[in-house]
Amino acid sequence: MSTSSTSSTSNALSVLAPQTSTTGTSTYSSELQASVTRALEIASLPMQTLQNDESTISGQTSELSTLGNLFDSLQTSLQSISSGTGSSALSASVGDSTIVSADITGDALPGTYSVDVGSLGATSSAESTATVTDPTTESISSSGSFTLTVGTSTYTIEPASTSLNALASAINSSGAGVQAEVVNLGSPTAPAYQLDLQSTALGSVALQLNDGTNNLLGNFVGGSTGSYSVNGQPPGGITTSSSTVTIAPGLNVTLEGEGTTTVTVSSSLNSVSTELSSFVNAYNAAYAEVEKNTGQNGGALTGDSTILSMQQALQQMISYTGSGGSITSLAQLGVEYTAQGTLTLDSSAISNLSQSQINDALTFLGSTSSGGFLQAAGNALDSITDPSTGVVATETQTLSSQNTNDQTQITTDQAQLAQMQTTLQTQMAQANALIATLQSQSTLLQGLFQYDTSDNPNLG
To answer: 448: pLDDT confidence band, cut at 50, 70 and 90?
Structure first.
């Protein structure tokens, strides 16, 4: 129960058990006080009903929070499975890593590619004609602004300070297609630091640096383009100005050496298998908690429409059927539905799939954003877990509003009971005092009457 609910209960008890009793000395004092207490008890019945409602709402809100957390965990398990599908489920292996290295960049198609590297190519380079002994304080020019030429593009270079190190750093951060380095061509005792530039692209790329007056680079060495072919095509090879090339959608290779090798792209469900186990556990936990709120002796939310919505969402998830391909159900991936309504996982089911079945399984699973079981299951859970429109959020808001209304009414009822108590106590005190006076007068009259009759011999 909430703090406000506990407080209202205490206040109600204080109203029903006043600190003062009905004043007066009549023989009817206890009866009068009992009448006040009984009247207050009857008047407080609606408030006690509200307080019981508060307690019920508190239990429902707590159970709703528990269910919400479990369904959130189930939603998270779907997202974890999704992270193991698509390009994440693909891997590329290379027959000879000294010729090329491979990288999956998207949804590459499984298969084997033959790559023949005819030439690695070379980059262009140039070096400064001047040298300095201390690159941290000296530079090859005192200018604060330089023009860098890379191929047909020019860039304005403005170092943070007048030093060779600052000039090299400014060139590297300029976005130009070059790499700048400061190298020592002298001896340890007589250093001679110069600026070296190397193009990032293969081929003969013009390189020059001008300080506004002089060209600062010399000893230009032009590079050459690389060449390669894929599956023997084209016969003369493909020329490239980059050592990293795309040989198929979602598949890049980097030229490492001359020669021929194979690149094999294959799919794997290793990550999916692990995450399916987490999904089964999360599903069973959510299912078990939902079941606690059903039946004759169910929990706080028994009979609530929220439970029916949760049951429908769970059923919708596990009954999903794919269309096409060799894998169309969770059961084929080892996720079985038991007679008790829970799920079990046979991990060997995935390990026994062929490569074509693995590809079909990935299509069946899809992702939480692009179709398949994962998107369908995610959509079903959204109706439960969405922070704005999900049944947990809307039901929680409804219960909160109802609780606020109850607390407001309880406060009003408490004030009315307090006023009623004050009025009844005053009225009963007055009645008690009047009765006491009448009883006193009656006693006096009885005494006088007895006295008169005892002293008169003619009476008796």
So the answer is: confident
Least confident of 149-153, 168-172, 418-422: 418-422
Q: What is the pLDDT of residues 182-232, one digit of tens each?
A: 999 999 899 999 999 999 999 999 999 999 999 999 999 999 999 999 999
The radius of gyration of the chain's CA atoms, rounded to the nearest angstrom, is 44
What distance in Å separates the CA atoms of residue 221 and residue 91, rounded to the nearest whole number? 39
User: Quick one: average pLDDT of 358-367?
Assistant: 92
Give kind and range of the element (H or E) at residue 397.
helix 391-455
Judge residue 235's burial from the number of C-beta atoms within 10 Å of its C-beta, 0-12 exposed, 13-18 middle, 19 or more buried: exposed
Q: What is the mean pLDDT of residues 61-75?
A: 94
Percent helix / strand / coil, the chain, rounded to 5: 45, 20, 30
Among 317, 325, 327, 334, CA closest to 373: 317
Residue of 362, 333, 397, 313 lying closest to 108 (CA atoms): 362
* In the predicted structure, residue 23 carries a pLDDT above the cut 80: no
C-alpha distances in Å from residue 50, one per residue of 8, 281, 396, 415: 10, 39, 18, 15
Identify any residues that bridge with 455 across adjacent strands, giving them in sequence order.
Answer: none
pTM for the full predicted model? 0.64
pLDDT at 2: 42
Strand partners, 180: 197
Express each pLDDT in 250-266 by its tens digit.
Answer: 999 999 999 999 999 99
* Listed residue (205, 231, 208) closest to 114, CA to CA: 231
* Mode of pairing for the β-strands spanning 100-104 and 153-157: unpaired
Amino acid at 244: T
Burial class (CB in 10 A: 0-12, 13-18, 19+), 83: middle
For residue 257, the 8-state DSSP code is: S
Helices (H), 83-114: none
Residue that has been written with the tokens 């979602």 in this structure: 250
Query: Which residues, 6+ apart, have CB-to-CB distance to 337 below 8 Å?
Result: 318, 331, 343
For the stretch 384-393, contacts whose Cβ atoms lie closer than 8 Å and that sit 24 or more positions apart, written own/partner, are 384/68, 384/71, 384/309, 384/310, 384/313, 385/68, 385/71, 385/72, 385/75, 391/305, 391/306, 391/309, 391/310, 392/64, 392/67, 392/68, 392/71, 392/306
Question: How far is residue 336's CA from residue 172's CA, in Å, rounded to a whole number?
Answer: 57
